[in-house]
Amino acid sequence: MKKLFTLFWGLLTVLGLQAQSEFPVQYADKDGNIIEDGSTLVLTEYEADAFGSIEMPTNLYVKNMTTESMQIGGIYTIETLDNGHFQTCFPENCVAQDKTGTYETKSGPLGADELKNMQTEWAPTDNGRCVVTYQLVTYKQNAITKEWSIDQQGPTITLDFTLTMTDVHTAGIGSKVVSVTYYDLTGQKTNRPKHGVYLQKTIYQDGSSKTHKKLFR
Amino acid sequence: MRYIPICLLTLVLTACDHIDREDRLIYEKPVTSKRAVLLEDFTGQRCINCPKGTEVIEQLVAEYGDTTVVAVGIHGGPLGFSGNTTTLGLATETGDEYYDHWNLEYQPVGLVNRHGAVNYPEWAAAVKEELLKPAPLNLRASATADNSQALHISITAMGTDGTSSGKLQVWVLEDGITAMQMMPDGTANADYVHNHVFRKAVNGTWGVEITIKEGETRTWEYTQTIEPSWNIRNLSFVTFVYNDYGVLQVAKAHLR
């Protein structure tokens, strides 16, 4: 995935007061360093995905602290979602939500000592904010029905995404628009943008023009 | 005693008399064909775990054959991609409608003979369970293409066990489509080959109502325009009859 802009890495703000250090699964970074229970990840970095849309990845992992396979999952509450959808592909399936609310993932296995990428992100369609609290849970299986149900609730993390696309132009204000043209990210002109990020070039009557990125979904 | 030879002779002479089928006392049920299973894989190009579902399908098809486990990759839902000027999308409005109709909440997820959502690790067990059930009707499909680039699809159904009521559905599928797919490791694979991709519902999104009595044979003919984006050499057809209790039978045929 091509990175469009590198603003700065998300700022990790540790707010956790009550660590659940004994819980068998923990949040971690890609190197396996444990992220404390109750932490808030402030996320401002965004990328263009393979389909020309914007995504804001968390690069958040989950680590099995035991030497046994665990059945795990998550409960997450989307508190703020200004636009787009919040997506989590954890632990076995992918879910995309476009409304605030509390949701539960499907359960899935996490191998002994395994470090698993949560593949969790916000896919915005415009500037705005998305705030999600995400709690890890373990599951137990009913011996008769073989169905899984939540056993224990573990550490919680808050994902605080903010998208601020800075290329806002002021050219042409107060002047009549003469034409609007769209180009895809390869520079190819298109009349009918579909999904993805496009460059919108607007030419004004006063001769000025402005170009900015526009998301179509 | 003297009548015994006469009785035996009478029996011998009358034993081979022709009796019309309708006059026979023992009814012969039509021969039932082998049960096939419809596996609808709700997938999406943006769904990084969906290739794992495809792997399960490939294993099932290798074990049972693609006419016994009839898999259909229905692109749609929030992780489907309908395409833009540079990237081919496989999601369709019909696929989205199916995803919404079945109240699906995650991907990959499947419907095995339409008995509710099944997570992909459980597809194999669900397929085995369905294969053990009898099918109340036989289905056959065949299709040809003419010079005008239209497909002519013929569906024949025969009732084999009681009266079957439901909807007959006919779909066009395409194999071998190379298009972008997000992979389980988070990378994007532009050379991913998508198989058994749902392309079109030939007889409406939800099919047409039918009723078939035991022993009755009925045929339906459909004509479908070949869309420019389809590779005719890779097309196949799936037909199935379903009702509120699931899929009664399914058949798959490749273009002749």
Description of the molecule:
The complex is a heterodimer of chains A (217) and B (256). Chain A is mainly beta. Chain A has strands at 11-13, 25-28, 40-43, 47-48, 54-57, 61-64, 70-81, 85-88, 95-97, 101-104, 108-110, 115-117, 120-123, 128-141, 148-163, 177-183, 189-190, 196-204, 209-216. Chain A has 2 domains: 23-163, Immunoglobulin-like, CATH 2.60.40; 177-216. In chain A, strands 1, 3, 7, 10, 11, 14 and 15 form a 7-stranded mixed beta sheet that branches. A 5-stranded antiparallel beta sheet of chain A has the order 4-5-13-8-9, with no helix packed on it. The radius of gyration of chain A is 21 Å and the shape is elongated. By secondary structure, chain B is of the alpha+beta class. Chain B has a single domain, classed as Immunoglobulin-like, CATH 2.60.40. In chain B, 17% of the residues lie in helices and 38% in strands. Chain B has 4 helices and 16 strands. Chain B has helices at residues 4-14, 50-64, 93-101, 123-131; strands at residues 37-43, 69-75, 109-112, 117-119, 137-145, 150-159, 164-174, 177-178, 181-182, 188-189, 193-194, 197-201, 208-212, 217-225, 235-243, 246-254. In chain B, strands 7, 12, 13, 15 and 16 form a 5-stranded antiparallel beta sheet that branches. In chain B, strands 2-1-3-4 form a 4-stranded mixed beta sheet. Chain B is globular and about 95 Å long. The N and C termini of chain B lie far apart (69 Å). At the A-B interface, strand 9 of A face loops of B.
